[in-house]
């Protein structure tokens, strides 16, 4: 963590001492005064002014470093991002956002494990993306050598809920009672004795899971399951049964609470709900048996319609839609269970001369800033930063990638609902993003 704060003060002192040699040759008292002024007073004043501008104000010593530096702003500069993106507060275990912070970690972006360790106190839930439920077995996905960093103990309050994607053919699973029971048993068994499945990973042997994150809705939607009212009810019933089975497991005494089931949901595509949308009714129906909802409020734009990743207004209206239909007391209880999705990746879209482009991660963003030195602009409508560049084939691109400001506004939105956040995923962001969490 190299800090480069002295550099700018140094630049300012260079100029006065350069002009000093000329004045010196003239050798009268006026120049001596000027010399003294230039040699000592100007640099000292510069340093003082610099200090005042850039040092934490004593009134707010507790603010995270990035706030004290004034980096959480609409007006930002590519140089600033390049210089500052790895610098964070000295104390990386202070939490600055009160509500739950849920973090996904993927084996294919192993920097996520390092971030999970370094900023471990900032996350209340960690979800390594590890399992797929096939026909009748639970498969472990590709493992990263960094997985050992998730060893228990570095943050006692943190819950570890691996993600399980239901890959089983939905009709098979949902139509047959035996299959459903088998799937539920597999998951409960995984949670009771994780090492029977991951015994190849010696280092994970002692890790007890605190529950799972289940992803199935998008797959059910893709298979047309949700169009059929009877099947839709069975699908919801499956989630409820799984929740009940998990909650009925008695845990070792060192665990403080029962196993947690978090369910992944997507934002409805429009105000007029379609059969495949997860709506307020569904939320209410699952509310008692599911402990949390990971709401995927991102991927608003695509190569066919280049634009922001997750306009703030859209996040807001999604929450209104999901929560408003419920009674006022139930509304608060359900809002607390929602983890509003925040993307730590961005998109680099082609805007002229064809369509294309797609997601980029932090280091690709940094490399684009280095290459193109673009002007970063704040888009008021979506409350996201973006920049334009032209590649060496003369094709114009637009890049939307999160910034401290865009993340801060989303944290405020979550706080206003009493909701938590879920980050996809912590291996893709810039290190200083974690400072404001
Ligand atoms: C860091 O912050 C935490 C939480 O606020 C506090 O308990 C701890 O004492 C701090 N550590 C240092 C070295 O200041």
From TrEMBL:
Name the record gives this protein: Chitinase domain-containing protein 1
Protein localization: Lysosome; Secreted
Main location (coarse class): other
GO CC annotation terms, alphabetical: endomembrane system; extracellular region; lysosome
Domain GH18: 99-437
Biological processes per GO annotation: carbohydrate metabolic process
Pfam families: Glyco_hydro_18
Coiled coil feature spans: none
Organism ancestry: Eukaryota, Viridiplantae, Streptophyta, Embryophyta, Tracheophyta
Keywords tagged on the record: Lysosome, Membrane, Secreted, Signal, Transmembrane, Transmembrane helix
PROSITE patterns, sorted: GH18_2
SMART domains reported in the protein's UniProt record: Glyco_18 (SM00636)
Top-rank taxon: Eukaryota
Residues spanning the membrane: 35-53
Species whose genome carries this gene: Salvia splendens (Scarlet sage)
Recorded GO MF terms: chitin binding; oligosaccharide binding
């Amino acid at each position: 963590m190299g800090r480069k704060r002295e550099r700018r003060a140094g630049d300012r002192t260079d100029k006065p001492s350069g002009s000093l040699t000329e004045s010196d040759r003239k050798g009268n008292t006026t120049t001596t005064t000027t010399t003294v002024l230039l040699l000592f007073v100007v640099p000292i004043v510069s340093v003082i002014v610099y200090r005042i501008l850039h040092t934490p104000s004593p009134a707010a010593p507790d603010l995270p470093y990035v706030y004290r530096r004034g980096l959480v702003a609409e007006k930002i500069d590519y140089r600033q991002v390049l210089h500052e993106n790895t610098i964070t507060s000295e104390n990386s275990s202070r939490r600055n956002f009160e509500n739950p912070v849920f973090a996904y970690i993927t084996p294919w972006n192993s920097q996520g494990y390092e971030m999970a360790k370094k900023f471990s106190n900032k996350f209340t839930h960690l979800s390594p993306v590890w399992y797929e439920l096939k026909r009748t077995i639970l498969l472990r996905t590709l493992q990263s050598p960094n997985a050992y960093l998730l060893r228990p103990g570095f943050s006692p309050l943190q819950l570890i809920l691996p993600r399980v994607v239901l890959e089983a053919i939905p009709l098979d699973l949902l139509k047959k009672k035996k299959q459903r029971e088998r799937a539920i048993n597999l998951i409960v068994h995984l949670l009771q004795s994780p090492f029977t499945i991951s015994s190849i990973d010696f280092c994970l042997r002692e890790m007890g899971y605190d529950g799972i994150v289940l992803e199935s809705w998008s797959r059910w939607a893709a298979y047309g399951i949700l169009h059929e009212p009877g099947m839709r009810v069975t699908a919801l019933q499956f989630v409820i049964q799984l929740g009940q089975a998990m909650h009925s497991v008695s845990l070792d005494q060192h665990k403080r609470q029962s196993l947690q089931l978090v369910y992944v949901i997507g934002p409805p595509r429009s105000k007029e709900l379609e059969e495949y949308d997860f709506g307020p009714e569904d939320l209410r129906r699952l509310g008692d048996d599911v402990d949390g909802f990971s709401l995927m409020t991102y991927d608003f734009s695509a190569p066919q319609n280049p634009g922001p990743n997750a306009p703030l207004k859209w996040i807001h209206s999604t929450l209104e839609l999901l929560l408003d239909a419920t009674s006022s007391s139930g509304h608060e209880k359900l809002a607390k269970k929602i983890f509003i999705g925040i993307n730590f990746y961005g998109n680099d879209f082609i805007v002229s001369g064809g369509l294309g482009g797609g997601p980029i991660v932090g280091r690709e963003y940094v490399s684009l800033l280095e290459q193109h030195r673009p002007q970063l602009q704040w888009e008021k409508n979506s409350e996201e930063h973006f920049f334009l560049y032209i590649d060496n084939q003369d094709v114009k691109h637009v890049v939307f990638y999160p910034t401290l400001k865009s993340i801060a506004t989303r944290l405020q939105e979550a706080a206003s609902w009493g909701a938590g956040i879920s980050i996809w995923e912590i291996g893709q962001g810039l290190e200083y993003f974690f400072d404001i969490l």
